[in-house]
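Entry for beta-D-fucopyranose complex. Fields follow.
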Amino acid sequence: MTREQYLKLTAALAAGSLLPKGLLAEILADPTLRRSDFGKDFIWGTATAAYQIEGAWNVDGKGESIWDHFTHYKKGKIKTKENGDVAADFYNRYASDIELMRKMNIPASRFSIGWSRVLPEGKGAVNQKGLDFYHRVIDKCLEQNVASWVTCYHWDLPQALEDKGGWANRDVIGWFEDYVELCAKTYGDKVKNWMVFNEPMAFVPLGYLIGMHAPGHVNFGKFYKAVHNVVMCHGAGGRILKNTVKDGNIGTTFSCSHVDAKNDKPANVKAARRADAFINRLFLDPVMGRGYPTKDLPACKHIEKHIQPGDEAKMKFDFDFVGLQNYSRMMVYNLGLIPIIHFANVPAKKLSENITEMGWEVYPVGIYKLIKKYAEYPEIKKIYVTENGAAFEDVNVNGEINDTKRLEFIQSYLREVLRAKNEGAPVDGYFIWSFMDNFEWAEGYRTRFGLVGVDFKTQERTVKASGKWFADFLANK
Ligand code: FCB
């Protein structure tokens, strides 16, 4: 806290008045955290995903995606019964949103391409109007000096492909290759930073094992097949991007959580290793050329059955960077009756009072530990934190959203990123999830992650205190 802030604060308290507007946020804006500490090449940005922000679900020839289908026909799976039909209306408001990014000094925007917007049936006929939309977005980013970081797949498989078995059908490798090639050829001259997938460890188990996300299957057989097909697509997508995008910076993203054992009982320690293999290594290790983590997660045997001759070499791909996405940590114990993984989580509320609206524990040191863990993989050349952020209840008081908890969250995690960097980890970027409030999958619109608040009735945008802080932080190079 500066002397000036201290004086303002004590004067307000002495007068028994409310804290001056924004003062708390200002104080929390730790002056010890400076952009320059991260070095001038560090990439700063925010992240979004097509389905969560675009809306316009059936406009200009877009085909149905599994998320359109899921939210329309399996409404009960969404806590609020809402859908992304309109979302944050980015399809119509992209220009002013990107201008706002520029005003907030945000140098890079991570966003995804909606597969069924450009290929309504998932394969075959191309929808020119869909391709044109992303041209407009990318051109606007170029005009505003915001770098585009494009994710090929952020969970919205075309429903037409799901009808043919989706990720569980091995033909998906060919479908995905054609789609990625279309993206790379269409935008590769203008976009250099690409990511193949967003978090396979989220969309595969949530969609095929526990059915919480689209397409809503609870099916072990499909899950095992989908894991292997996604792993194959990882390598295939990486190769296509590398060969098609001249001077491309090609990566992919993984969700990860630091895992602790509930106590030092051998069965729980082993469960923690199993959980780590499942949560952090199931998709990462094969891409790194290490195969499935079968030793620590015996259920991988069922996945290995789907490996065909020649697959092993194709599973591996030498990415230019790996995107690390982290929100919380897990504490686990052995529980044999849980199929496949045989562990359960200690509920976050038992671990801490500091939990987010998602019910996730705030655990900043976790991101430090994960960066250090990734840094131990000799195959990983560069790490970017491609998602980190928090959902808290935001209150809009006369046009101001004083989201001090989010601000504190971001600062505390950033400090840990910096600690890892200062200790030599090759971490060179940080993207906040999310630029603006959006449709949070099975949670609906209630859980807000944005630096920019969205009133979903009027589509009005309000830069929150966290967004103002980020803008100032970015301005002070
Ligand atoms: C990540 C997803 C992203 C968003 C955040 C909160 O797992 O990649 O789309 O939902 O969680």
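NOTE: The first strand starts at residue 43 and ends at 47.
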